[in-house]
């Protein structure tokens, strides 16, 4: 009985010790928006050094315990382009672009195979990084067919009229800016995907601290986004769908 009691005490002490050693990443919103902007930009740089693209263009993290992926080129070395003002970063994947392709218009109806995650950029133990990933969209591991005419690219007038909300409530300006740096394919929805590249949208060019549509029932305040995608088709919007 005494031994059982002693073992119970030892287990409780060990459990308590483990809990104290655990690092819990908690986010505290910076009062100064410039600090959040800085975190976003620095976290994006770190993300690009720690990830690469696989044979189909999917973003993959380097495994520190596996040398087999060391020969892959990091996103940071794939000629990332940063757009002035918005801070949006786009990376064009070599040998994965349509030729010829279709320009993506401001109001086009797009069909896009897309995986998008929202991250909070924060400082953890002095290291600025993306944390707390949340799924924004995923047709790749979802139903496996392109998303058609997503509201975060273009919202219809009828939707805004019904809700009384403005265009900025739904649309992500940084995604719009980034996706227009690519050309669209003209392929059927049934084709297997070959992702074209990456777009990283800092929070200031996403929803920042503004009211926004709760995609996936998530609050996207202060979140940066990473999109990994292929535009299957882009076509002029019919007048009855404006």
Describe, in plain words, how this protein is organized in 3D.
The protein is α+β, with helices and mostly antiparallel strands and about 240 residues long. Helices cover about 25% and strands about 25% of the residues. The protein is built from five helices and eleven strands; from the N terminus they run ααββββββββαααβββ. The strands form three sheets. Strands 3, 4, 6, 7, 8, 10 and 11 form a seven-stranded antiparallel sheet that branches. Strand 3 and strand 4 form a beta hairpin. The protein is globular and about 55 Å long.
SSE order and pairing:
Layout: H1 2-21, H2 33-50, E1 51-53, E2 59-61, E3 81-82, E4 89-92, E5 102-103, E6 109-124, E7 127-138, E8 147-148, H3 157-163, H4 167-170, H5 173-179, E9 183-184, E10 197-201, E11 223-235
Antiparallel strand pairs: 1-2, 3-4, 4-10, 5-9, 6-7, 6-8, 6-11, 10-11
Concise summary:
The chain has 242 residues and is of the alpha+beta class.
Q: Can you tell me the residue ranges where pLDDT is under 50 for at least 5 consecutive residues?
A: 1-23
Number of strands: 11
- pLDDT averaged residue by residue: 91
- Biggest beta sheet summary: 7 strands, antiparallel
In oligomeric terms, what are we looking at? single chain
Rounded to an integer in angstroms, the radius of gyration calculated over CA atoms is 21 Å
Portion of residues in helices? Answer: 10-25%
Gap between N and C termini, in Å? 77 Å
Q: Beta-strand percentage? A: 25-35%
String of helices and strands:
HHEEEEEEEEHHHEEE
Form type: globular
The helix-and-strand class reads alpha+beta
Helix segment tally: 5
